[in-house]
Each structure stands twice: as structure tokens, then as C-alpha cells.
Amino acid sequence: MENVVYNDYASWIIENSNLFESLKQQNSIIYTRFKHVFDVVSHLYELLLENKLLDDEQNNIFEVGFYYLYEQFENVKLLLEHTYEGDIVAFNKQSATIELLLSTIEFENDFYNVTLQNPEEDKENAFVELEQEIIEFLERKEDAPQELFEKLDKLSAELYEKHDLEYYPIKEIFLDIAEELNLL
What we know:
By secondary structure, the chain is mainly α. It has nine helices and no strands. Helices cover 79% and strands 0% of the residues.
């Protein structure tokens, strides 16, 4: 793997460390969502800095984790800056709804390739519609009702069942990796 990914990570971590620490200090569920991914990626980066070569599997884990953090944090930063005008306390008060939005976007991305293979697939639009509904609540600085959480559960369950897929979220994958690396 080229060093460019590691250099990008180093720049990204400098840019986002204050936000990550602020979420940690707020004991935010948003922090919890990313914690194990962040821990694993940081650990692998530290190994690299100690002049230890990463094997292909470690490189892949690093890359997947970093790109996941990058993409998800872009969404977090946009919400924090544009909807909450940088107010981390107000942002954190709606962390459950923000978590719902991030999960919806993640499911939307998961099914992107599935829907490419089956253009008449209609469910992706349901994720986009749900995303818009959640954003409307966030823009009003209101918590999403339980029905939206249930709607996401139903949509995702239907699609996983329809396409015979198993759900193994990236945060769970990285929890398992963190455990294997004795980072817990």
C-alpha cells in the first residue's frame, strides 16, 4: 500500500482530533459509534510509525477503517457546522437522531451495489426518503420519533432478506478486530 493513505490519515487525524475529543468528552453515542474503528486504525498507524511493516490484511483493515471514518465524519462535520453552527452540546442532545441518520446513510451505501445489479430495485429510494425525513427533524432540532427508527429496521431487514445478505456492521467488525488486537 502506498504511503499516501497513511499521510492522508495523519492529516485527517490532525484536522478531526478536536471534534473526536469533544464527542468523547460529551460521552456521545456518536463517539461510541466510531470508537473501535478509531482505536484499530490508530493502533495500526502507531505500528507503522514504529517502523513495523503492516501485512496485507492489516493494510486492508487500515484502509477500510480510515475511509469509513473519513466518510462518516464528513457527514458529522456537515451537520455540526451547518445545522448546529458548531454547538457540540446541542449537536449531542440529538445524537440518537444523528446516529439514525448515519445508520440510514450506511444502509443506503450498503445497498448501492445491490441496486446497481437490479435497476428496478425500488427500496433504495425508501432509504433516501427516510434520510430526508430524518434531516428535516434535525434541521428543526427535534428528535426523530420512534417510528423512524422502526422504519429503518423494517427497510433494512426487508432488503437483507430479499437479497439473502447477512448484516454485519462495520462497527461490529472493528469491535471484533479490536478484541483480537487486545485493544479493549
